[in-house]
């Protein structure tokens, strides 16, 4: 056998774990440290990490080009007060960066050839049409993400020895992979990686939860509902009897109470992306998500003018990472709509809170001049027990006038439901909540699945735009 050529970079030598844990304390240290330090201390850490991030940005072609285009030069940005001088960008510019320098884009400061000096791992954005956007993670970036994820779960009440079933999909996306790393390394709990319904059929997931005494479940709201309903109605197992102590999800506009009632357990919201890691998560108060402000800065900006808005006002979320070296994000307009909650959290934590994600600016449908979020439709659907919470919005142009119409198909919870009355009531409710008339169709259980992919995918599609 030929001698092995070249160096193999071992992960445990690629970063200083102790130094990292001091810089970004994982639980339990997190709670006595970052979670409670003064606002001045948070600001001081942000200043230092922000300047480091900007220096790194100047080494990366994407940012040199993007900043140079507005006349900025290295040294112009002297601190956080200058943050808003940096022009924001959206996923459109990231896609262009990938087209310009395929296959990974020039917004990353690392490439596969760096694998000779440090172990790299690749994950992607969630399922979209075409190829998903790839991301290479350097060891320190990836490990910090695991710490941020560990903090999230500790905030949700996860404890050492817990068995956590992860129902996010396993594969290219971070859905299942990132929680596995976070749970395993920084919580003391044990990840049980069932994945989505496509990896492990839903009935089998229930059997596993029961047999292995799973006491925490992570999943999208629709799948958490689906699991409970399958257990109860198809298997004759009362979800309350499973002893689930806490749930983790990405709630957005979904109805928290419905899920909590189904499981008899608190359900916590959280917010993360594959570019930025776990940015915010709810504590036991379940009243907004504490932002990991030592690792990320979130600004809320006006969707039209880009002007940064004061606390309390709704706008688009701009992300600046303070820990990423391989591919930092610096004023990335993710186009999610939320706001900063002005009040302090009753839990005593000093980290500011992000309100729920109200919807996405770019999936917002302009229907006859009115802005409609599919997520707001969902909030109405799950609030009515006549539906099992499954729905899909179909937008199309119809008739001789090419009139824009939205049809909302809503699954009935029970086949005996009076569908005519249900359609009438929902149409009335949508008119009140959305401010625009939509067509409502009550459909059989499972009928929207071919559009949404709820039973097989963790990327649920709620909007079909046929215009
Ligand atoms: Zn709190």
Any overview of this molecule?
The protein is of the alpha/beta class. It has a domain of 101 residues: GMP Synthetase, Chain A, domain 3 (2-Layer Sandwich), CATH 3.30.300. It is 31% helix and 21% strand. It contains 14 helices and 22 strands. Strands 4-3-5-6-7 form a five-stranded parallel sheet. Strands 8-9-10-15-14 form a five-stranded antiparallel sheet, with helices on one face. It has a four-stranded antiparallel sheet with strand order 11-12-13-16. A hairpin with a 2-residue loop joins β17 and β18. It is globular and about 65 Å long. It starts with 10 loop residues before the first helix and ends with a strand. Zinc ion binds next to loops.
Observed structural traits:
single chain, alpha/beta, GMP Synthetase, Chain A, domain 3, five-stranded parallel β-sheet, five-stranded antiparallel β-sheet, 22 strands, globular, binds zinc ion
* Low-confidence runs of at least 5 consecutive residues: none
How much helicity do the residues have?
25-40%
Count of discrete alpha- or pi-helical segments spanning 4 or more residues: 14
Structural class: alpha/beta
Mean pLDDT: 93
The overall strand count is 22
Overall CATH class of the domain at 365-465: Alpha Beta
N- to C-terminal distance: 61 Å
Gyration radius, in Å: 23 Å
Shape: globular
Instruction: Please describe the biggest sheet, giving its number of strands, its sense, and whether it closes into a barrel.
Output: 5 strands, parallel
CATH architecture call of the domain at 365-465: 2-Layer Sandwich
Question: Biggest sheet: strands side by side, in what order?
Answer: 4-3-5-6-7
Ions, cofactors, ligands: which are bound?
A: zinc ion
- Can you tell me the CATH superfamily of the domain at 365-465? ANL, C-terminal domain
Q: State which percent range the strand residues make up.
A: 15-25%
